[in-house]
């Protein structure tokens, strides 16, 4: 059945009919070429934008919400309004145990402090953290390690610092691991250094120390600054936020309708807005691309119709010589698919060039708007399959047209 | 070889219909060379087309080499045409973007013959019509007589039982016409059965039998003494 695809004559025929109408064939192919180019270019740019957003949110688990205590706005159970609310470790533990769909609850503490090393000093954020933080807000470590459970258990005086702090407190090319920095006049051994990460929000001047150590040096007891709650991917983060807040109100004797007792920032919700926009853009891209593609393929069908009309007599001769209608149809469909495929391949290649140009123009540097604009191989394959299907379908129209007239009438045609 | 009885054919023209063939009876034996004559509109081309399975009769019987030709699908008709018939047209009907060799090889292509074998066979037939040296030329680079010889080689390529020629000399000057006729006579001498439509008396007289049509019926069907074409060349 498919032997004819490997037959030299089949392609000789295709080449002949193409070279007979070079200009017209090429002009027609431009339609498909343009469609595919648009599809690849737009999809690639959309992916580039998505990548740049992902880089923005990259280090965070996106299905997460931050919750911190404020002051109450309603009196409840004998407490006056205006009561200060501080979250505690047990709150965090209860949320983890009782709210459905929770993946992690990460309690955190933060303070500003003067940090001194030799003759250099600076004011930095001191964070008291659990090893878990590395799961929800990935640190790209350049040297060393992040805080581990042993550090927590033994209240170790170790610190993980950002690259920015290294730049401010250390000399160039100086060794960082094992060196000591002074926080609140207490020596901390540096065990790790991480990349600055997202530059859009300014370089991070964070020092992470074990949570338990933080508790100790700032005398915090069980209190925590805020907690970061991440939900399992299949759960709605908005619901988790509501459930967690309600539980917190219950635990802290706060009126259930008190809206101001807890502050929160729902990263998942913000992220959903962005991804929604990106999804919309991707849909639009596919829509525009496919629509243009269909228009291009129709142009090819049109040109083949004209070609078939012009070759009516030739087709008549072939049939007189013993070509079956199937053989005639097959040849025309092969031509249609060939034209669409070649135009499509050129479109994919030039689409790739467009993406390369986009990348050199907008994709360089850390704050690029388009990051790694690209399309996956799967998309290219889907596009090619769509092309083959459309080419076949559209080729059937002239194919049936070619064999619809009787050979005798075809021969009479001048 | 060929037997036709009570063949009728009419074409619709607007609301009425034109009765072109009104009961044709004709039989042709192996090795005959028959000229079908008649003025335009007499139905001679229609008859040839029906014999060539390019057209279908409304009524009547047509038996080709013992095979009844009736209600053929397009596919079957194509296979029969390829196997049994060779066509020679007035305007040659060569494919203009294919070389002489490729044109001759075309019927063999539709037989599913391998490329190499096909080209050898086509070359053999081109040699036979004396155009071996022109194998790689396009039809537009050849003269009318040469083109018709290529067309004859093409008609012969599939070794058909019956050659059908529709005014084979209609587009040629007298001298070239006689050359072509000489060639067709040679084929007939070798045993090919030939059926040709013509309206030229001198050409018809170079056949062995003349069938005259008028208004869709056979007026006359007689054997003639063949005039050899080589004496004019």
From TrEMBL, chain A:
Subcellular location: Cell membrane
Annotated MacB-like periplasmic core domain residues: 25-244
Primary localization class, coarse: membrane
Record-level GO cellular component terms: plasma membrane
Domain ABC3 transporter permease C-terminal intervals: 287-407
Bilayer topology annotation: Multi-pass membrane protein
Keywords in alphabetical order: Cell membrane, Membrane, Transmembrane, Transmembrane helix
One example GO MF annotation: transmembrane transporter activity
Family: Belongs to the ABC-4 integral membrane protein family.
Name of the protein in its database record: ABC transporter permease
TrEMBL record, chain B:
SMART domains on file: AAA (SM00382)
Pfam families for the chain: ABC_tran
Record domain ABC transporter: where: 2-233
Keywords: ATP-binding, Nucleotide-binding, Translocase, Transport
Alphabetical list of CDD domains matching this protein: ABC_MJ0796_LolCDE_FtsE
Gene3D superfamilies associated with the record: P-loop containing nucleotide triphosphate hydrolases
Molecular functions (GO terms): ATP binding; ATP hydrolysis activity; transmembrane transporter activity
PROSITE patterns hit by this protein: ABC_TRANSPORTER_2
Record-linked InterPro entries: AAA+_ATPase, ABC_transporter-like_ATP-bd, MacB-like_ATP-bd, P-loop_NTPase
GO cellular component: membrane protein complex
Protein name per Swiss-Prot or TrEMBL: ABC transporter ATP-binding protein
Organism: Wocania arenilitoris
